[in-house]
Amino acid sequence: MRRSLDAGRPVHLDSVNTIADGLAAPMAGDMTYAIVRRFVDDVVVISDDTIAEAVRDLLVYTKLLAEPAGAAGVAAVLSGALPLSRGQRVVCIVSGGNVDLGKLRGMI
After folding, report:
1. Per-residue b/e over 19-30, b at no fewer than 16 CB within 10 Å?
2. pLDDT tens-digit series, residues 35-62
3. Tally of CB atoms within 10 A around 36
4. Domain membership of residue 29 as a residue range
5. pTM of the entire predicted model
6. Do 24 and 69 fall within a single domain?
């Protein structure tokens, strides 16, 4: 989606390699792109390492098991990828517990 927004049109990626398979669509669909362009302020890109750290932190500190795609918002906030002011209230939707146990071991 980030590349589509930068290009000003939906684009298709040849391949996607990420631990966040729920975010790994190789393309932005026309309708989804139009909705995001109209209603979303920004889309940030974060690394797999940052996502894995958020999965681990959610599990250790909140006892919530989130799949990598479901922890991406938390990862963006904790890593500073979002420009937030001190004391600003933020909501992250944490979802999904569909995590491969082998990958989870590597994250924690």
Report:
1. bbeeeeeeebee
2. 999 999 999 999 999 999 999 999 999 9
3. 17
4. 2-39
5. 0.88
6. no
